[in-house]
């Protein structure tokens, strides 16, 4: 009997969590395909994560119906028999984002400490971070915050032992296998590498969700002077 690489659990009266085996190849692509396929039922509310999807349904049909609906899609996209070509064909279109980052020591408060621990130079860390292409793997923590990954192995570090009570909006940081940008002034437990002048979240406008799951993100270094110039005329992601 073929082993299942997915699991479905209740998450309340009207919700389920569909989890995939974290060791499945092309895991993030499978999550993308599942989210896109499940959204063919527009009344479902879906929140994706790196390895799972939270799905909320209306009470118009039975719990057994929704379990079967989820299981059929999971079996299609989470099976090891699903060819990569099928996954690529089902992938929803993704946007590409190229984001400026000032890695100056004034903003990259943890660069020196990370360099010492990693036995790398600060420039090595900047190069590794800015020359890697990332994917939006999940959203959460704060409005507009995206978990981008995966990081190069050399940059994987646990969260700070002592979180900061406040960091500036636009701060670029890393923790575990992720990098991200704090969209608002907020507490932060990740290691700060720099800052971007771009606006990721503006509650005074309709500009609320700059990211979509599966979007591709790259960073490019700018000087402290360029950062100040951008701040005078800020751009949105």
TrEMBL record:
Keyword Metal-binding: no
SUPFAM superfamilies in alphabetical order: Cyclophilin-like
Key words, A-Z: ATP-binding, Hydrolase, Nucleotide-binding
Transmembrane regions listed in the UniProt entry: none
KW Protein biosynthesis (keyword) present: no
Superkingdom of source: Bacteria
GO MF terms held by the record: ATP binding; hydrolase activity
Domain Carboxyltransferase: 6-208
Coiled-coil annotated residue ranges, if any: none
Protein name (record): Sensor histidine kinase inhibitor, KipI family
Taxonomic lineage: Bacteria, Pseudomonadati, Pseudomonadota, Gammaproteobacteria, Oceanospirillales
């Amino acid at each position: 009997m073929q082993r299942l690489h997915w699991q479905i659990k209740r998450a309340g009266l009207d919700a389920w969590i569909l989890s995939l085996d974290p060791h499945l190849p092309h895991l993030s692509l499978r999550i993308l395909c599942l989210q896109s396929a499940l959204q063919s039922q527009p009344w479902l509310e879906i929140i994706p994560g790196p390895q799972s999807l939270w799905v909320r349904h209306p009470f118009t049909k039975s719990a057994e119906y929704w379990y079967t609906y989820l299981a059929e899609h999971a079996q299609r996209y989470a099976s090891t028999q699903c060819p990569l070509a099928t996954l690529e064909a089902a992938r929803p279109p993704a946007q590409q984002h190229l984001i400026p980052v000032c890695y100056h020591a004034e903003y990259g408060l943890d660069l020196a400490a990370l360099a010492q621990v990693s036995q790398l130079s600060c420039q090595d860390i900047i190069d590794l971070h800015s020359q890697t292409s990332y994917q939006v793997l999940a959203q959460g923590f704060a409005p507009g915050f995206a978990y981008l990954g995966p990081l190069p192995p050399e940059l994987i570090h646990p969260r700070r032992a002592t979180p900061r009570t406040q960091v500036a909006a636009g701060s670029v940081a890393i923790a575990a296998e992720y990098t991200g940008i704090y969209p608002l002034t907020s507490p932060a437990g990740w290691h700060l590498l720099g800052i971007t002048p771009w606006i990721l979240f503006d509650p005074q406008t309709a500009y609320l969700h700059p990211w979509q799951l599966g979007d591709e993100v790259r960073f490019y270094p700018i000087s402290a002077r360029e950062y100040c110039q951008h701040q005078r005329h800020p751009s949105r992601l």
